Here is the input.
Amino acid sequence: MRALSLASRFLITLVVSAVLPLLLYGWFSLLGMRDQIDEQVVRVFLPQLAADYAQKIETRLERTDQACAIVRELSRRVLDTPLDQRDGELAAFGEQVELIPDLLSEFLDLLLLADSEGDVVFWQDGRRLDPNAHQRRAELIPDSVAADAWFREAQRERGVHYLPWGRSPYLHRGMDHRSMDPGSHHLGVAMDVPMGDGHSGVLFALIRWSEVQAVIDEARAVLIEEAGLASAQVFVVGRDGVVQAHTDRARYGLMLEPAELGQRLADAEAFGRCESMRDDGVALRVGFAPGGGDSARAFVMGVAVPEDELFAASDDFERVLLLAIIVSIIVLVAWSLAASRAITAPVKSLVQATRKIAGGDLQVAVPERGGPELGELAAAFNLMAHELAVGRDRLAHAERDQAWAEMARQVAHEVKNPLQPMRMTAQLLQRARAEEDPRAEQVAERLARTVIEQTEALDRIASDFRSFAGVAAAQRSEVSVDAWLRALREQTARLFADKQLTLTFTGAADDALVSIEQESMARVFVNLVQNAIEAAREPVTVALGSRREGDHVVIEVVDNGPGVPAEVREKLFDPYFTTKTSGTGLGLAICRRLLDVQGGKIRLESTRPGETRFVIELPIA
Here is the structure.
């Protein structure tokens, strides 16, 4: 923990002294860049761009007014001509109109002249309109416009009058249909034509709105090509907030959204800027400029740019700054770790050596470096490790001696028991022969039986001690658990055929394979069955069962014995521990030893009167 603390303090010092100034510099630079963009683009560029293109639209409308004024003067002569002589004058009038530059090709889509009674004496559609639809348009031109409001107003008020922007019934059918085509919208203008008799006719024109849309598209092209603002929108709204032109044609004829922005622009008296929020949550910066004067042709030009695109440069700078900070921190961390190694390496060596000693490696030694203090500490540590190693060797030697002594005592005790009856029978035979007892042959026969029985006991004792050493891995083979247990049940049943034993098997391990030494594993199960027979009153029931759990096979051995007392359960698998009056006390210890060598486990799962359950786990091969 001390080494980590030293490195952490060193690293924090570097971060505070190097990264913090970089953060402060980047923060103030980012704020300055945003202020500069806001000053140069939002406060100046967008409103000025809106004003410039509003002026372009207004200039186009003024040129249209001038051209119409020329036509108005030409119209006087036509209306002052008597009706019977008017045909020739109308032909000349039409030729003169064609000579006015751009009038019917760029400025107007319809020119109509009505006399003082409202009768239409002349009309001409624009050259850019579909010539194939000329007959359809001719059918829409009325013979008289005397009932139209614009006609009466132009005669009454005199001068120039503008009609509301929108679709005209003189060019289009279905006025209730909202069109997204700029060519379907017009700004109408009507002006009186004074006549010599004191009456006046009216000259009516529909200003070509597609040219206004061209100005809008030009403004957006400037924003894209020169400013790189690909998502910018340019639009024209009337004083009622209705979109009259938009880079998105689908907005034609709709109220400008959001509503507060439409209201702000509809009320604008001078060019300026504002902020707005779209319905989809995108923040906008808007520049606007009014145009068209106070008449019905008044409009407001607007330019809207999403904030994230407007401040893209500052956002890029922010990402670069963040990346620079991350790289700086990585470099500082790497450098600080390398630099702190010289300080913390001796301490880390001591910590690692301490852990090795805790794990049992007493041969460890640490370099005696790091100055006088750490070097002296390392030398003391090495001396301590050496003394611990010597002490462990002495303790291990003493434990081995004690183990051998215990083993010799146990072997002597177990061997002594079979020798006692053999010695007593041999002495009896010796006395019978010395006394020429006629029963000497019977005693000899008894001695032979005793020797055979006790040598078998000695053989079992030797076998128990030999089995306690385990089994070599090379003796293992792979077997199918259920098939092997089924055969083992039959062998065990034959082995205890003289006992009242019911041995059953229920296999559910399917085709699982295990790698075992079959003879030693058979001894485990025989030992468990033997214990059940010795502990329970006959008849004895032992149930074997198998199942598969994950990557292991679980085998259960359940008997109907009296159960294992609680005070002996923890010592059940200890060597030389037994609750019986005979035996070596190695039975269950041998079972655990054999399973440990083969990667398995055995445990007492549960016990109660009438049911004792041992569980064996073996890894699947």
